[in-house]
Amino acid sequence: MTFKNTKGPILFTGIKCTVLLLTIVACISNPVFGQSKKMAKLPPIASLTDGVWLKGDLHVHSRHSKESSNNPVAKIIAFSRSVAMDYICITDHDNHVDGDVAHNTWADPEFKSDSLLLLYGAEWTTTRGHGNVFSAKPYDHKRLYDVRDQRDTVIGRVKNKLGIHLSANHPSGKDHFGYSYDIIESIEVWNSAIWSRNANAIMIWDDMLSSGRKLTGRGGSDAHHGNPETPDKATANSGQAKANYVGTPTTWVFAVKRTTQAVVDALTNGRVSISANPYAPRVEFYADLDQDGKMDMMMGDNTRATGKPVKFRVQLTGNTLPDGNYTINVVKNGSKFGTYQVTGKTPVVEFTDTPATTGRSYYRVTVEGQATNYPQVPQSMALSGSMVALSNPICFNFDPNF
Ligand SMILES: [Zn+2]
Ligand SMILES: [Zn+2]
Predict the structure, then answer these.
(1) Does residue 296 belong to any structural domain of this protein?
(2) pTM summary value
(3) Contact 301, 45 (CB under 8 A)
(4) How many A from CA of 142 to the centre of ligand 1?
(5) In 75, 140, 169, 172, which residue has its Cα 20 to 30 A from 195's Cα atom?
(6) Rounded Cα distance, 355 and 310, in Å
(7) How many domains does the chain fold into?
């Protein structure tokens, strides 16, 4: 009830007074006062089968980033194709070109491919930290660059007008994302092959999810350096190409179509998992809400908890090692829920739990085990260690209008 902009004197009728009184009584008698706002109606869950799994890298620097070496756009695209990537986003530092990525990375004659989906984006490189932009089509990046030092409310409005997906980069490292997490859609929870550096990023992600921010977790290699063609072209950083390059890690999205827009939409919706490299197994995470044996939702999806038990299914697909043993860790609301050992060609784990009808719940999984060989980036396996894959959360009672 609002009396703003009401013209003339406000006349309380008897009925209005009763409604007001009842509302106050209802709010006070509600044990979760403050959360009494009714949650918006949730949209129906999208199909679990009409779509395609696409893999890519969401954080790569080309020669348009000043500190990169031996990494022209054509080399990144050719390499991505050689390891069967479906999409890629070249995210050069926007401050190196005064915000004008449109006339640098995107205008590079090598920025084209018939088979690889090329997202438009950049690394928003500011005094308050780094974020990546992902867009299906060109947008006016200069506008975002120009407001980088303004208040977050101003930045949020500009971002919404541009219709772009904004993502926090390496949130716990140097140049962490020093902006409000209310202006982003996703967070880089796995930056580079060096998995051990990401523990605090995962902690931040869990804090954000627990506070009702349904942010997608995604990966990004942050690769800057390619293999030199000849030894004389080598730089002090050339060795990095053997340890961290396109695909370390690899972000999988379940897209409705093979288009750049579908990739960005899947990323926003959280139908995403991350694997250590393009050949490592992919983790899929589903829930059967009515226990009829048919899965009803997958990671990234959100529904209202009914109070009935839900059956969850974790499955590994793709290149599982023939006699590999994998450990599946389930996290519920930021805390350890269970640990399961699996083996076999298509390992599956099922568990049951009853999400509370009041308050929010989320479940996500991580997979550990033997590293899968990535011959093109041979030193990356040692750096990612036993980390194989991680899923996005399955959510209950998250308010879409949060
Ligand atoms: Zn950065
Ligand atoms: Zn970067």
Answers:
(1) yes
(2) 0.90
(3) yes
(4) 18
(5) 75
(6) 8
(7) 1
